[in-house]
Amino acid sequence: MSNPTVIAPRLLFVTGRLAEFALRRVLDDLAHPTDFRAEVAVLPISVAALMTPQWVARKLEVTEGIDRVILPGHCRGDLSVVEAKAGVPVSLGPEDLRDLPRWLGRSDDRLAGYGDYTIEILAEINHAPRLTLDEFLDQSHRFIQQGADRIDVGCDPGGPWMDVGTYVAALVERGWKVSVDTFDPTEVKLAVKAGADLVLSVNASNREHATEWGVEVVAIPDVPGTLEGLDATVEYLTKEEIKFRIDPILEPIGFGFAASLGRYIEARKRWPDAPMLMGIGNLTELTDVDSAGINTLLIGFCEEIGVTSVLTTAVINWARSSVIEIDLARRLAHHAVTRQTLPKRVEPRLVVLRDDKPPRFGPEALAELAARVKDANWRIYAEDGQIYAFNNAHFIVGTDPFVIFEQMNVDDASHAFYLGHELMKAKTALTLNKAYRQDQSLDWGFLTEPEISHRSTKIRARATTEGQP
Q1: 96 falls within a domain
Q2: Which pLDDT tens digit goes with each residue over 255-306?
Q3: How would you classify residue 254: left for phi > 0, otherwise alpha for psi between -120 and 50, otherwise beta?
Q4: Treating both helix axes as pointing N-terminal to C-terminal, what angle do 322-339 and 133-146 enclose, rounded to 10 degrees?
Q5: Which one of 133, 138, 173, 273 counts the least CB within 10 Å of its CB?
Q6: Which residues pair with 338 in a beta bridge?
Q7: C-beta atoms surrounding 262 within 10 Å
Q8: Residue 367 is part of which domain span?
């Protein structure tokens, strides 16, 4: 006996004029005859976020055969009035159209289990002896909040620094793991006594002291730019039953960078089961480039060969967010390596400078949209190198925000300030090929700050103009 034919439900998506084209594009990509059949109801309002259930109930007409009505996510209030009018169940969709696939249950198998990681982050506080205890703790707290697993106390040459124990103890009291970065045995002894449980670093010059400390150490070569002496140090630590991690030392570009990566691979071959550490700051702090890409690339290398801890600094301005970047990158790299999937369109927070794929309406669609506008409020779009600004009386296209603003003939100072802000934001988006959305912040990945106040002010202004409740 054959199975009866399953009829896909008809879903009616309610939106305003500004979002119509974007909604239809999303639905065209999503709707399959076996899942659901999508229809769109465009109500006489520009901004869908202005809708209230009472107003929707007055304006919405639901044809026979619709199984469910989907309202914009910003439509707050009692939905029962709409259900009474529609005669079918009513639901709130997502606030952002980009979340519609997930809201409809279109899960992405590539993201299953995303967020796990194996790499420990050691965040080093450089020149700790030069900081007051409060300054030191404030910086440590920021690093922990950004994702650091351990605070590395960086001592200065010419010690011993006799207050190192006080600083370490303050970290331990807060429940944070601590390492100490020094070759001075007195500083190490004070730090270990206060609760530090990892020492950076040991080689032939000081490894015999490791038997006194009773904590894990980082083993490094005796001669920079080689692995010379590392075998002897590893053998000594193994014989003395001292826990250790191996760090072949990453070198800056132009000073043996490629060869130093090769030494990490060679060390992994020699000691296939030994924990390893990489000091990433040698590259991020010493290269004229934003640190996110470098951190992500190096973390990918570490994940592939089994380097399970990294030491980072965050001193120079272009590397100030290194801890956050590494925290995101270690999750992305772990996901890519363990699931054998490309690290692409998985972690949008690491895409800071440019967006993945800015939406595009096209000049014809924007002209059609402008023709529907009935009020004097300005709508601004930016795409294909052009800024579009229009209301019920003007349709302006150009590249220079100052020229466009002059053509707007705006007299009100507060409105002029708002439009100037939006036009320059649009110009920035065009310059970097980013998506521009009026009344919303540009997407700077993990650095994004929302522009709630601008959005709420202008939406209220439009609501008043269009006579909405």
Answers
A1: yes
A2: 999 999 999 999 999 999 999 999 999 999 999 999 999 999 999 999 999 9
A3: left
A4: 30
A5: 273
A6: none
A7: 13
A8: 363-463
